[in-house]
Amino acid sequence: MPSKGIDRYLVKPGSKFEMASVDTSEKTLWEDLTKDDHEATYDMLRDELQHLQKVLYAQQKHRVLVVIQAMDTGGKDGCIKHVFSRIDPQGINVHSFKKPSEEELAHDFLWRVHPHVPRNGQLVIFNRSHYEDILAVRVKKLFPDEVWKRRYRHVVEFERMLAEEGTTIIKIFLHISKDEQKKRLEARLENPAKHWKFNPDDLQDRARWGDFMHAYEDLIGKTSTECAPWYVIPADRKWYRNLCVANLMVEKLRSLKMEFPHPTWDPATVRVED
Amino acid sequence: MPSKGIDRYLVKPGSKFEMASVDTSEKTLWEDLTKDDHEATYDMLRDELQHLQKVLYAQQKHRVLVVIQAMDTGGKDGCIKHVFSRIDPQGINVHSFKKPSEEELAHDFLWRVHPHVPRNGQLVIFNRSHYEDILAVRVKKLFPDEVWKRRYRHVVEFERMLAEEGTTIIKIFLHISKDEQKKRLEARLENPAKHWKFNPDDLQDRARWGDFMHAYEDLIGKTSTECAPWYVIPADRKWYRNLCVANLMVEKLRSLKMEFPHPTWDPATVRVED
User: Fold this and answer.
1) Of B108, B154, B167, which has the smallest distance from its Cβ to A167's Cβ?
2) B149 touches chain A (CB under 8 A)
3) Angle separating helix axes A145-164 and A209-223, nearest 10 degrees
4) What residues in chain B have per-residue pLDDT under 70?
5) pLDDT band for position A4 (50/70/90)?
6) Is the predicted ipTM greater than 0.85, yes or no?
7) Minimal C-alpha gap between A221 and chain B (Å)
8) A-B contacts at Cβ under 8 angstroms
């Protein structure tokens, strides 16, 4: 099975991260392959991911949490759909976090998140996450600065607890350029079948692109930990983004060295009566 | 309103705590008063507590979490019933944590706790808590030592997050002697109306009294923080225990300097039409 140096996109814990260090349109890991080869590789990766999830589910030992963040049109929905669609729906759960409700805001910011973390044998994907409670809060100035600043520690320690209790955490930022977003937004506007995905409010976030990049840069650098590292994936090219995420998932799940559980009874002694 | 030096029972954050430093049968704070005076004082404290909770509920600003731990017969149920029974049930919620279910054990240990933390304006009491996942796990050797050792940090950071997000946390250990427990267990055995409260398994915990005291001592010392301090309350005398807890609650709620919310509209401009 193919495996590439996906750690190229790992944000090293404890290091200062610079967003500009990742080229949104690069295709280094697979640039030597033809388009047909990309597709064959992607196909193999998805098969292996499907297999690994089966073992994860059967073994009921590990919990896997994937956090996906991106700017609007960054490819969160598309990536989830493409990379994870072969997986048995019984073992995977995608949770999308929207604007918090009044009830959610009346609690600490992790209160609405915690119930959705994976149980043994489960793979959970967060489409947006508790990181919005730092990012959006910071850029849109929803609360005083000390609130989001304290939350760096809160998320790091929350994730440490999850990890030490048995959860494998993979955090992915799908990184697109401002130009690429423009193309995608225009495509949405031009295609009536995609109008439902367009929200005029997204343009407000776009107008603060620099603020968001700065907030992401700071956030990713400060919350990439051994327990829960960030991967910043070039996402201007959808095929490359999907290959990277599939590859990352396969590498992470392989590293758990999972196996189907051995029966606790001796199959030789079991007889099915007439 | 009466207020005594309840900080006598505060476990100073960062200090080494010795269980033997608290005499389970002492009555220092109110020993100069007669029994009638105790009752009058207790009555006033409960009235004030009732009032403070009204403001808490009306203001919808603060969240209050009370964690109560004790050995069996230590008085958790009795204390909750006595001290908090005058409070409007709409604004108070008591959550008892039992032996974790299979579903709960398939998640991190804080997963079952987090949904029950208070929202704005709410007072929540935990009758037993996430601390059992350290104590019972340690004394009964339910998981390897590294599991409960890591959990010290997990609870401290969880509580820090809750506190920084707006929750006032008060942790109470009702401290009784082994002799006092014997009396109470015997009383339960002798009274058929109390048989439902007796569980033969409690005798197993009693047989490990020394181990539990050692585990509590270590736990309380290491998890008493500025954000979420422990109070070790002498609890052999029920009247004294109740006075102390009522007094502690009143002091903590007073210190929030709460007030009824001011209307955001001008009452003078409102006219109720015919």
Assistant:
1) B108
2) no
3) 40
4) 1-4, 267
5) low
6) no
7) 20
8) 76
Other beta carbons within 10 angstroms of residue B247's beta carbon come to: 26
Chain A nearest CA to B162, separation (Å): 6
Calpha distance B59→B120 (Å, rounded): 8
Q: For B173-197, what is the HEC assignment?
A: EEECCHHHHHHHHHHHHHCHHHHHH
User: Across residues A244-260, what is the average pLDDT?
Assistant: 96
d(CA B7, CA B5): 5
Report how far residue A24's alpha carbon sits from residue A176's, in angstroms, rounded to the nearest whole number: 5
Assign residue B44 the CATH number of its domain.
3.40.50.300
> Which of B5, B106, B75, B67 is closest to B224 using CA atoms?
B67
Interchain pair B154, A166: CB under 8 A: no
B239 falls within a domain: yes
A158 CB within 8 Å of a chain B CB? yes
How confident is the model over A204-224, as pLDDT tens digits?
A: 999 999 999 999 999 999 999
Domain that holds residue A239: 6-256
Average pLDDT value for residue range A16-21: 94
**pLDDT exceeds 50 at position A1:** no
Number of domains in chain A: 1
Average pLDDT estimate for A100-114: 97
Asked whether residue B53 is domain-assigned, the answer is yes
Residue A269 in domain = no
Cα–Cα distances (Å) from A204 to A70, A72, A107, A200, A211, in that order, read: 15, 11, 27, 8, 12
In the block, residue with structure tokens 């190229």? A8
Q: Mean pLDDT, to the nearest integer, of A90-98?
A: 90
pLDDT score at A25: 96
Residue A264 within a domain? no
